[in-house]
């Protein structure tokens, strides 16, 4: 997420799609491994910076074609930012012997494109809360994703950057980097989904994201439509809230109004002084970050423990199969609920060997990163660890988001395009009571009735919170995949691949008192 969170995220791999009906563009999304080395985890710690080379960041990526003749680049998909930007072939980060090992996902050579036009020299500057950045010029050129080609797409050229792959930001245009650097909304340009609307490729500025199972190989991003075969139950829509400071819609900020825990041993309603919690649905972040009190309750339910050296909550990898789940409710009573099973919340830390707990109740057991982490301040984020369990439709015209429980590994497809600009989300009903979403905080400690069933037979840690490290968000997820899907008229769909670019460095855990296998 731009400027406010960790942007590790999502990749799309564009693949030509056979049966794509008019008005939609679909991309398959999948997860796969890459040698790419980067990290966007915020820290001033020089040790951590060194370790960054050993880190893999998870994300969903899409393969795009830019320029004339076309150059192929694989870019990270991000609903938490709004610009497309690409690393320049001349950027030092792309040199093969750079500390990040070059730009294996591709870089853009402007000199080789006959249609490249600079439109804002030195006007492109984006930075992320972790301190990573990309700076350079805005330019226009031809851009293809899936089977959609936009001949005059505005993009940023990362001439000076410490990130060795580019991004496709598909958020609100008010969140474009140029708007914040010029501090003027009038500088906003038509970004990717708006260009698709302008060029008649899709009918309205809306898209659906189906990330699919942590272990699955396919998911997809569908511009201009919904796929009713990819979820169960009903799509229920809730309001997106404008930025409280500016009154402008700039991120997918929604109201999280309940969290419940359930397992074979019982169920609990969790509480937080922050309810209703303003959370951003952010596909560019791999983990989810909730307020401290709620995170601690969730950790106690599952047996996750905060590791102050690694600065993340860890959990024995074996807990993935312990059963149990968390249900997130939005927009008040009757609003959409998404159940996230435990096996979606236990993330392997590194593709290069699993660290083990060196002491404590889990001594000797393989350590995984837990998908729900704590954060001290807003914006709280629901990233890929949550989003994989949801089918999410983003409607940037009506400022609404519709959610339904995802159908993991769905192979069917029934794509319905939005018929016109501003048309409501097809098949979605509105959350009935969101106008009454209470702002009264309530906090009581739950009974942890679900805890026994969640933890299964794994050693039970002493419920204590503590530790004394700060910050450190970021993280990753893993998996591998590839995929494909089908589309319908009026929407445009593209295949995406989730590249696994990684997680926490195993090296990090040496310092953290963990052993490396
Ligand atoms: C391409 O886009 C730029 C920036 O929006 C605009 O100035 C230019 O006129 C456009 N060119 C064409 C051929 O449409
Ligand atoms: C989905 O498919 C993957 C890969 O085949 C498999 O590992 C996973 O268990 C499946 N998920 C569900 C919920 O069936
Ligand atoms: C969540 O867990 C409870 C208790 O194990 C189970 O009854 C319920 O079916 C689960 N819900 C989902 C959606 O998996
Ligand atoms: C997360 O919780 C741990 C343990 O309570 C604490 O030490 C750490 O500072 C918290 N991190 C953030 C970012 O709030």
UniProtKB/TrEMBL annotation:
Q: In what ranges is there compositional bias, type Gly residues?
A: 468-482
Q: Which family does it belong to?
A: Belongs to the peptidase A1 family.
Q: What is this protein called?
A: Peptidase A1 domain-containing protein
* Domain Peptidase A1: residue ranges: 60-404
**Pfam families linked:** Asp (PF00026)
Is Protease included in the keywords of this UniProt record? yes
Annotated region described as Disordered, given as residue ranges: 459-489
| Record key words, sorted | Aspartyl protease, Hydrolase, Protease, Signal
**In terms of domain of life, where is this protein from?**
Eukaryota
What InterPro entries does the entry give? Answer: Aspartic_peptidase_A1 (IPR001461), Aspartic_peptidase_AS (IPR001969), PEPTIDASE_A1 (IPR033121), Peptidase_aspartic_dom_sf (IPR021109), SAP-like (IPR033876)
């Amino acid at each position: 997420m731009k400027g406010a969170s960790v942007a590790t995220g999502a990749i799309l791999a564009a693949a030509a799609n056979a049966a794509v009906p008019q008005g939609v563009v679909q991309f398959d999304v999948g997860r796969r491994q890459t040698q790419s080395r980067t990290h966007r985890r915020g820290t001033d710690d020089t040790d951590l910076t060194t370790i960054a080379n050993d880190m893999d960041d998870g994300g969903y990526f899409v393969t795009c074609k830019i320029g004339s003749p076309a150059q192929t680049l694989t870019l990270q998909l991000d609903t938490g930012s709004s610009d497309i930007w690409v690393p320049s072939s001349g950027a030092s980060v792309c040199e093969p012997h750079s500390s990040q090992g070059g730009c294996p996902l591709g870089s853009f050579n402007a000199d080789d494109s006959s249609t490249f036009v600079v439109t804002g020299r030195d006007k492109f500057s984006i930075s992320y809360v972790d301190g990573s950045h990309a700076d350079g010029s805005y330019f226009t050129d031809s851009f293809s994703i899936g089977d959609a080609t936009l001949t005059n797409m505005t993009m940023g050229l990362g001439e000076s950057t410490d990130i060795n792959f580019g991004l496709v930001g598909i958020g609100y245009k008010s969140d474009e980097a140029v708007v914040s650097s010029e501090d003027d909304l009038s500088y906003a340009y038509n970004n990717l989904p708006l260009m698709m609307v302008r060029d008649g490729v899709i009918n309205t500025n809306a898209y659906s994201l189906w990330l699919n199972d942590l272990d699955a190989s396919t998911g997809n991003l569908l511009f201009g439509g919904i796929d009713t075969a990819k979820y169960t139950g009903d799509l229920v829509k809730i309001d997106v809230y404008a930025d409280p400071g500016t009154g402008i819609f700039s991120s997918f900020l929604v109201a999280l109004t309940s969290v419940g825990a359930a397992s074979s041993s019982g169920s609990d309603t969790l509480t937080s002084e922050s309810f209703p919690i303003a959370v951003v649905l952010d596909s560019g972040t791999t983990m989810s970050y909730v307020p401290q009190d709620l995170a601690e309750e969730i950790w106690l339910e599952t047996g996750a423990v905060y590791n102050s050296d690694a600065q993340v909550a860890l959990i024995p990898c074996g807990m993935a199969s312990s059963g149990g789940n968390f249900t997130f409710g939005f927009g008040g009573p009757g609003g959409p609920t998404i159940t996230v099973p435990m096996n979606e919340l236990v993330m392997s830390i590194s593709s290069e060997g699993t660290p083990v707990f060196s002491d404590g109740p889990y001594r000797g057991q393989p350590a995984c990163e837990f998908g729900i982490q704590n954060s001290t301040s807003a914006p709280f984020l629901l990233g890929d660890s949550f989003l994989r369990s949801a089918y999410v439709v983003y409607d940037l015209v009506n400022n609404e988001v519709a959610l339904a429980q995802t159908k993991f590994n769905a192979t069917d497809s029934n794509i319905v395009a939005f018929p016109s600009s501003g048309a409501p989300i097809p098949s979605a009903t509105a959350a009935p009571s969101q106008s009454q979403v209470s702002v009264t905080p309530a906090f009581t400690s739950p009974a942890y009735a679900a805890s026994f069933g969640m933890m299964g037979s794994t050693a039970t840690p002493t419920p204590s919170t503590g530790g004394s490290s700060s910050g450190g968000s970021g993280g990753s997820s893993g998996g591998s995949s590839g995929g494909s899907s089908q589309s319908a008229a009026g929407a445009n769909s593209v295949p995406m691949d989730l590249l696994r670019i990684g997680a926490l460095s195993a090296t990090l855990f040496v310092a953290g008192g963990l052993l490396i296998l």
